[in-house]
Write a structure and sequence with these properties.
CATH architecture of the largest domain: 2-Layer Sandwich
Largest sheet: 8 strands, mixed
Radius of gyration: 28 Å
CATH superfamily of the largest domain: Endonuclease Chain A
Shape: globular
Low-confidence stretches: 8-22, 191-195
Helix content: 25-40%
Strand content: 15-25%
Number of helices: 16
CATH class of the largest domain: Alpha Beta
CATH topology of the largest domain: Endonuclease, Chain A
Mean pLDDT: 90
Number of domains: 3
Distance between the termini: 15 Å
Length: 639
C-alpha cells in the first residue's frame, strides 16, 4: 500500500532537480500529452456505439477537462512568459512555443467536439424524440408560451450592465455564460428630463446560473430550447424604446491556480478563504465566443479583458456544454448505459459485524463494481460500536451529501476519540471541505488541516477497538476519495484489513499528520514525501538487477499520470536491462515507449471508458515472489 502527502507546489515548468540533458529528446511534453488524453475522451463521444446521452456526457467531460486545463495549466505557462532565463521544458519548448502548440491542438479538438455535438448528438437525439431546438425554429405559439415563461421566471433575475463613462466594463466571472450586445437611444429620447446622447453602448447580460439551462418547450419535457437564446430573443423587454443589436454569446475562463503560501500563515482557514476570493478575480486566460459575433464586438472584448487574440476561440455551437447535461435527467434509459448493480462481498453480506468479517479475512473492494456502502457501513458501525474507542480519518474530497462525516459526528457525540484530517487545500473543493471542517469541529471532532506546505492526499481510516486480547486496529486504505458520488463513477480499490502491522503504520501516519511526529520508517506503508519515491525507485532498481542477472523481471503500473523525471529515467534504465514494463496511464505520460535503445520493452496503454480509471496499482515480479501495492499517488513529482 502507499499513501501520499501531496507536495503543494504545482508550477508547470520549473524543476528543482538537476538538469537531465538526455531527457530533452526522450520525454514528451506534459501538457500536450494531457490534451491527447482529452482526445481519447472525445473519441468516446464520437463512438457511434456509445448510447446517445452517454455521448453527450463525454462531450461535457471534455469541456470540463479543457476548462480546468486552461484555469490551471495554461495560466501557469502564461505566468512563465514574464520570467527571464527559464530553462527549456522537457521537449525543448519555451513557454511561448508551448502556448502556440497548445492553441493549435485545442483548435482542432474544439472543432471536432463542436461538430460532434452540432452534427451528430443533437440531431440524433432529436430523431429519438429528445429535442434541443434553436429558438428561431420554434412556432409562434411556442414562442408566445416561452415569452410568458421568460417574464415569470427570468426577467426579474436579469441585470443588464451597460458601459459608459459612469459604468466601467463589468467584471465577468469565471466560466459564466454571457450575452453581449450594443444599444443606443432613439433620437430625442429623454430620461428624467435629461437628454440621452445618441451613442452606441456595449451591454453585458450574465445568464443567471440559478435558472435552468434547458427550458422545456412542451408539457412532456422532451423538447427544449437554450435559455441564452430565449433571453436573447426577449432582450428588447429590458430596453424599452431603445435600438438594439443582436445579442452574441461569450464566456471567459480565468486563472484559478492560486498559490497558497501556508508556510507564512498564522490562520490557515482564513488564508484559504482569502485565496478563494482572490481566485474569483484571476486574470482571463481564454475567451470563447459564438462564431457569429461581429469583429468589432470581439475586438472590444479582447481589449476590455486585456487578453491576446490567440486566447480567443470562436465556437460554432453552444458554449458551456456541461450545462447541457441537464438533458441527462430525461427518463430515457435506452439512451444511457445499462445501470450497474454493485455487489457486496459475501462475507460482508452476512449479519455478522464488519469487524468480525475483516478480522477473519482482509476485504478488497473494487468500486464501482463493489458497493461503496461497505465502506460507509464500516464507518457507521465504528461510530455506533461501544467497543470502538477511536476513529482517525483523512478526508480529501468527501462530497456535499456524504454520510461519512455525519458518522464521524455521531461517533464524537457518543464520546469516542475522533480525528479528521481535512484537506482544505483540495483544489476546487476548498469551500465544501471548509464547511465540513467547521461542522466536524463544532461537534467535538478533533479537526486537523494537514501539514504546512503540503497537501494531505492520503485515503486512510484507522479504527481502534477494544477486544478480548487488548486493542485491535482496523484499517481502510483506498485509492479513491471517501465520496459516495464519485465512487459510482470512478474505478478505485479499497482494502479493509485488521493486519496489526498496517494498523501500526497507519497510527504512525496519523501521529505524523496531527502531531508532527518525525517517523521515517514504515513497515508496510509508503508515505510521500517520507519514503514513497525512494521505495518506488528501489523496487524498479531491484527488477533492473534481476534482469541484468538473467532472471525474469516484470513491472506493471497503473496510474493517472507519469510525469516524474526520476521515475522515467529509472524505467528507461530498467527497460535497457531487459525488464518487461507494462504501463497503464490514463492521462499525461511523458515517457516515450518502444524506442530502440531507450525503452524497447516498455508498452503504454490508456484505458478510457464508462468509468474514470482512478486506481493506482503497482506490481513487481520479484523473481516470482510478486509484490503488489495500491495507493493514491501518481508517478508525478508533486506526488
Amino acid at each position: 500500500m502507499s499513501s501520499e502527502i501531496n507536495n503543494q507546489r504545482n508550477n508547470p515548468n520549473l524543476k528543482k532537480s538537476k538538469p537531465r540533458h538526455f531527457l530533452s529528446w526522450s520525454v514528451l511534453n506534459q501538457d500536450l500529452c494531457q490534451l491527447e488524453f482529452f482526445k481519447r475522451v472525445l473519441e468516446e463521444a464520437t463512438d457511434k456505439s456509445t448510447p446517445l446521452l452517454e455521448r453527450l456526457k463525454f462531450l461535457s467531460v471534455f469541456s470540463s477537462n479543457l476548462d480546468e486545463f486552461f484555469m490551471v495549466r495554461v495560466s501557469g505557462i502564461k505566468e512563465m512568459l514574464d520570467i527571464e532565463d527559464i530553462r527549456p521544458m522537457p521537449g525543448e519548448l519555451t513557454p511561448s512555443e508551448q502556448l502556440l502548440a497548445i492553441r493549435n491542438r485545442v483548435l482542432s479538438l474544439v472543432e471536432e467536439h463542436t461538430a460532434c455535438l452540432r452534427e451528430e448528438v443533437i440531431p440524433q437525439l432529436a430523431s429519438k424524440g429528445v429535442v434541443i431546438a434553436p429558438y428561431k425554429q420554434l412556432s409562434k405559439s411556442e414562442k408566445a408560451a416561452l415569452a410568458q415563461y421568460f417574464m415569470r421566471n427570468i426577467f426579474l433575475v436579469l441585470t443588464p450592465q451597460a458601459v459608459d463613462p459612469s459604468h466601467p466594463f463589468p467584471y465577468v466571472s469565471n466560466r459564466s455564460l454571457n450575452i453581449g450586445l450594443t444599444v443606443e437611444s432613439n433620437p430625442g429620447e429623454t430620461l428624467a428630463g435629461s437628454y440621452i446622447e445618441e451613442e452606441t453602448r456595449f451591454v453585458r447580460i450574465k445568464v443567471p446560473p440559478v435558472v435552468p439551462r434547458l427550458v422545456p418547450v412542451n408539457a412532456e419535457k422532451t423538447k427544449f430550447t437554450l435559455v441564452e437564446e430565449l433571453i436573447e430573443a426577449n432582450i428588447h423587454r429590458l430596453f424599452p424604446r431603445m435600438n438594439l443589436s443582436k445579442g452574441h454569446f461569450f464566456r471567459v475562463t480565468r486563472d484559478a491556480d492560486v498559490e497558497i503560501r501556508d508556510d507564512k500563515a498564522a490562520d490557515l482557514l482564513r488564508l484559504i478563504k482569502e485565496s478563494l476570493r482572490e481566485r474569483r478575480f484571476g486574470l482571463p486566460v481564454r475567451l470563447e465566443v459564438s462564431s457569429t459575433m461581429p469583429r468589432e464586438m470581439l475586438d472590444y472584448l479582447v481589449h476590455q479583458l486585456n487578453i491576446e487574440p490567440a486566447d480567443v476561440y470562436e465556437i460554432d455551437g453552444p458554449l458551456d456544454v456541461p450545462g447541457l447535461m441537464e438533458l441527462y435527467s430525461v427518463d430515457r434509459p435506452e439512451l444511457k448505459d445499462k445501470p450497474l448493480k454493485p455487489t457486496v462481498p459475501a462475507t460482508l453480506r452476512k449479519k455478522q459485524s464488519i469487524f468480525e468479517a475483516v478480522k477473519k479475512q482482509d476485504q478488497m473492494l473494487h468500486h464501482p463494481y463493489s458497493s461503496f456502502e461497505s465502506v460507509t457501513d464500516f464507518i457507521k458501525e465504528a461510530a455506533r460500536d461501544p467497543q470502538v474507542l477511536a476513529i482517525k480519518m483523512c478526508l480529501y474530497r468527501t462530497g456535499k451529501d456524504s454520510a461519512i462525516p455525519d458518522a464521524l459526528i455521531e461517533a464524537s457525540e457518543a464520546g469516542k476519540q475522533v480525528t479528521a484530517v481535512v484537506e482544505i487545500k483540495a483544489r476546487f473543493d476548498e469551500e465544501n471541505n471548509i464547511e465540513w471542517a467547521k461542522r466536524l469541529a463544532e461537534s467535538g471532532v478533533h479537526v486537523v488541516y494537514g501539514l504546512v506546505d503540503l497537501k494531505t492526499h492520503s485515503k486512510v481510516t484507522l479504527v481502534v477497538r477494544r477486544e478480548e486480547n487488548g486493542l485491535q486496529t482496523y484499517t481502510h486504505i483506498a485509492t479513491g476519495n471517501y465520496n459516495p458520488t464519485t465512487s459510482k463513477l470512478y474505478t478505485d480499490l479499497g482494502l479493509l484489513t485488521s493486519d496489526p502491522v498496517i494498523g501500526d503504520d497507519a497510527s504512525d501516519l496519523f501521529n505524523f499528520l496531527t502531531g508532527f511526529s518525525m517517523q521515517k520508517e514504515y513497515s508496510r506503508l509508503m508515505i510521500a514525501p517520507v519514503n514513497l519515491r525512494r521505495r518506488m525507485l528501489d523496487l524498479i532498481e531491484r527488477e533492473t538487477k534481476h534482469a541484468s542477472s538473467g532472471k525474469p523481471a516484470h513491472i506493471i503500473a497503473k496510474v493517472n499520470r507519469l510525469t516524474d523525471l526520476d521515475i522515467i529515467e529509472s524505467l528507461y534504465r530498467a527497460s535497457q536491462a531487459g525488464v518487461k514494463i507494462d504501463l497503464i496511464i490514463r492521462g499525461a505520460c511523458m515517457l516515450r515507449p518502444g524506442v530502440p535503445s531507450l525503452s524497447p520493452t516498455i508498452s503504454v496503454r490508456s484505458v478510457v471508458g464508462r468509468f474514470l480509471e482512478h486506481s493506482r496499482i503497482f506490481c513487481f515480479l520479484n523473481c516470482g515472489e510478486e509484490e503488489l501495492y495500491i495507493g493514491s499517488a501518481d508517478w508525478m513529482t508533486r506526488n
